[in-house]
Design brief:
With 198 residues, this protein is mostly helical. It has helices at 12-22, 41-50, 52-57, 72-76, 87-94, 108-121, 148-151, 181-189, and strands spanning 64-68, 97-101, 126-129. It has eight helices and three strands. Strands 1-2-3 form a three-stranded parallel sheet, with helices on one face. Strand 2, helix 6 and strand 3 form a beta-alpha-beta unit. The N and C termini lie far apart (60 Å).
Length: 198
């Protein structure tokens, strides 16, 4: 990459490099895109859908997040300035597979706490324990998590439970082409319930 990393936007240089690789696709079976620890995975994933040439020739298989068993709780609890997302939480939330690495540096009780926190953020991703990032490739390749034809472009949601002491806010993320932000915002605001007091 030009700057040596993939940051928080859909990168033109990533599209360019993938285009170059497609011309040599007979020489490899998979392309692994490794981001920095600070990358937001959503725009990187979106790269595979916004460019027509890439979308027709490459398939995004899965997002694999590697977490450090010894330090992940600190990163998940890190307080960020208002409007800045916690990258660790984002990466866990977007993952299809979570590799909990360096399990040799924590005891089983701590590992249980780590996995419980990860499950609270992402209940559906498979958690894979590892030392020195040694993982059977069959568990992270050929996952098929982004098969848009199984999901049929449907949306699903469920109640997350009581708010507790957490700040009350909701967020929706739309990924698509030629979306009208103002129309979507106005439509969603029209659905808001107004609290009525007696």
């Amino acid at each position: 990459m030009n700057s040596g990393c993939i940051c928080c936007t859909v990168r033109g240089d990533l599209i360019r490099i993938l285009g170059n690789l497609m011309r040599r696709r007979d020489r490899f079976d998979h392309i692994l895109v490794e981001t920095t620890g600070l990358a937001d995975p959503a725009p990187v994933a979106q790269t595979f859908f916004v460019d027509n040439e890439i979308a027709t020739q490459l398939r995004l298989d899965a997002i694999v997040t590697l977490v450090d068993a010894r330090h992940i709780l600190h990163h998940l609890d890190e307080v960020k300035p208002q409007g800045v997302e916690n990258e660790a939480v984002e990466q866990v939330a977007f993952a299809d597979r979570i590799v909990v690495n360096r399990i040799d540096l924590v005891d089983e009780a701590r590992l249980g706490v780590v996995e419980e926190r990860l499950r609270a953020i992402n209940a559906v991703a498979e958690i894979i324990r590892a030392e020195r990032a040694r993982v059977d490739l069959d568990r992270i390749l050929g996952v098929g998590a982004f098969d848009l034809s199984t999901v049929h472009m449907l949306i699903d949601s469920e109640e997350a439970g009581p708010w507790g002491d957490d700040p009350r806010h909701s967020r929706l993320v739309f990924i698509g082409r030629n979306l009208d932000r103002e129309q979507l915002t106005a439509g969603l605001r029209g659905c808001l319930a107004v609290a009525v007091t007696a």
